[in-house]
Specification:
The protein has eleven helices and two strands. It has 220 residues and is mostly helical. It has a domain of 63 residues. The radius of gyration is 58 Å and the shape is elongated. The N and C termini lie far apart (156 Å). InterPro entries: THEG.
Length: 220
């Protein structure tokens, strides 16, 4: 007889369930509480084995705080912390600056230049510079000016009766000029037609000589 792949339903759970899921649903006990061989704890509740154990370089590098925070703490509490405590902060900055994660995040600081910047004294503003600065802040903070166009100046009101002739002239259709042909103009004269006085003209001797054909003889 083959083994069943599921457990039979019961009164409390009337459904079939696979044995694999049933076994996975049982919680595991990773640490059995036996009085013999239990780990020793410190009064604060930390395991002594955890304090005596060695951590990897990766865990040590991740455990360091951000170098930017250490630098800000050093600047803020420079006049409040003791010299020993400031030395410990400097060592922490050096260690955090040399980790691989700081290099990958491009957060490495040149400590020599950083110290040189702290040694320099910041020059205070003079009264003229401060006044100029406050004037500039006042200009920036002031509301934006609106350059509106000047209002249209209108003349005195005129009654409608006076305006009606102009309104009717504007409302009427314009008169367009129609250009005629030259033959339709009054001043036009047809060149093909001959005046009656030209037919009664008497030829003179001079005009006869000019109208007569010329005999052209070749020269020797």
């Amino acid at each position: 007889m083959a083994k069943l792949k599921y457990d039979l339903p019961t009164n409390t759970f009337p459904y079939k369930i696979t044995r694999r899921l049933n076994a996975l649903s049982v919680p595991r006990r990773y640490c059995y509480e036996t009085m013999e061989g239990m780990p020793a704890y410190t009064p604060t509740g930390i395991r002594k084995s955890a304090l005596a154990g060695t951590t990897s370089d990766r865990v040590n590098d991740i455990a360091w705080p951000w170098i930017r925070r250490l630098v800000i703490i050093k600047k803020q509490y420079k006049n409040r912390f003791s010299s020993e405590r400031l030395e410990r902060i400097d060592r922490m900055i050096e260690f955090a600056n040399a980790t691989l994660y700081t290099k990958l995040a491009n957060c490495v600081i040149d400590l020599k230049k950083q110290d040189a910047k702290e040694v320099k004294k910041k020059r205070g503003w003079t009264e003229s510079e401060w006044k100029k600065h406050m004037d500039y802040i006042g200009q920036v903070a002031a509301p934006k000016k609106e350059f509106k166009p000047p209002p249209v100046k209108r003349g005195k009101s005129v009654p409608l009766e006076v305006l009606m002739p102009r309104i009717t002239a504007m409302a009427s259709r314009p008169d367009f000029k129609c250009y005629k042909r030259m033959s339709q103009e009054n001043w036009y004269r047809n060149p093909e037609k001959v005046a009656p006085s030209a037919l009664k003209y008497v030829l003179t001797e001079r005009t006869k000589k000019l109208a007569a054909p010329r005999n052209l003889q070749p020269q020797d």
